[in-house]
Design brief:
Length: 339
């Protein structure tokens, strides 16, 4: 037998020893095959893209005046309320200070609501995923004990209620322009433990699987094991928890302006203590739903269904899109990870 020819060394820069696992080195075109048979992801992404387009349109058209509804006193007339028409496709929304075209108000509110929900869910999910993953991977350590204590402490209190209580107590020290950013930060502070609790339980299970033990036996460091094996297998609870949290966010944004509508007139000093919005003419879907319910039932009569039906449908459609997108992303990542 002749001598076996030695194989040439791999080209420089190919297959680094500390690079991602082979499944993540597939060509980009090949990854698109995981999008097939995933209607949830497509449907959710399309609807969210439409909301993003509406937000971009509002930012471009309203400019610096985007944070205040352009109320017109002449749109509020005695007698029956103005319903959907050619001039106002979704009807006229009545608020205490005047009226506004409801379609314009819903579009104008899109960038704020996308920013509020995205900031809260994104921040809480990121913190909860990292801390929960590290705590689950190092069971019994100092971080695990701290995360467990904090999550158990807040487990019995709904995040939306705790965020509202904290906001009411700190608003007296803030300027109105800071209400909404502080509300987002407080909500992230009380919401991430719910995600960390779920991720920690999943990470503890993943850390005991054979492929993690094999990676540790091969000399992989703690950070590498966490990044390559534990976190990619622990994201599912986060995606499953996001849609219910969207409902909690809009509960705060809707219920308290609704109570303020009945309990205090617009401009009353107690109004800011009931809602994270900086003023009584702020474009936000929950506020529009609260005003539409308040004035659509109590002032314009039960027949003014469009005042609350269209804001409610907008919030419901947005929540459905988030739920579909989360389900689709979970399915896509699971198929890509297994393939």
């Amino acid at each position: 037998m002749g001598r076996r020819r030695a194989l040439p060394p791999p080209p420089p820069g190919r297959l680094p020893a500390d690079g991602p696992p082979p499944r993540f080195r597939r060509p980009l075109v090949e990854r698109f095959r995981y999008l097939g048979g995933n209607p949830e992801l497509w449907a959710g992404a399309i609807v969210l893209a439409l909301f993003a387009g509406a937000a971009a349109f509002a930012l471009g058209s309203d400019g610096a005046a985007i944070d205040r509804l352009p109320l017109v006193a002449g749109l509020v007339t005695p007698g029956p309320a103005a319903g959907p028409s050619a001039a106002h496709p979704l009807g006229v929304l009545h608020v205490a200070s005047g009226g506004i075209d409801e379609l314009r108000a819903l579009v104008q509110a899109a960038p704020f609501d996308l920013g509020i929900v995205g900031g809260i869910l994104g921040g809480a999910a990121l913190v909860g995923l990292l801390l929960g993953g590290v705590a689950g991977a190092r069971e019994g350590g100092g971080l695990d004990l701290a995360v467990t204590f904090f999550t158990d402490l807040l487990a019995g209190v709904p995040p939306f209620l705790l965020a509202t209580i904290l906001l009411v107590n700190v608003e007296v020290f803030l300027r109105p322009a800071a209400y909404l950013p502080v509300f987002v930060l407080l909500y992230v502070l009380v919401l991430w433990p719910a995600y960390a609790r779920l991720v920690r339980a999943r990470a503890r299970e993943v850390a005991q699987r054979p492929f993690v033990e094999a990676a540790e036996a091969s000399g992989a460091g703690a950070v590498r094991v966490l990044r390559r094996h534990i976190l990619p297998n622990s994201y599912a609870p986060v995606l499953a928890q996001m849609p219910p949290d969207v409902a909690g966010i809009f509960f705060v944004l809707t219920v308290f302006p609704f109570l303020a509508c009945f309990g205090a007139p617009s401009g009353n000093p107690v109004y800011p203590l009931l809602t994270p919005l900086p003023n009584g003419v702020f474009p936000e879907w929950g506020y529009l739903l609260a005003q539409g319910t308040c004035h659509g039932w109590s002032v314009a009569g039960v027949g003014a269904w469009w005042m609350y039906a269209f804001p409610a449908a907008t919030i419901a459609l947005f929540g459905l899109a988030v739920a579909l997108a989360c389900d689709g992303v979970e399915k896509y990542l699971a198929r890509a990870h297994a393939g």
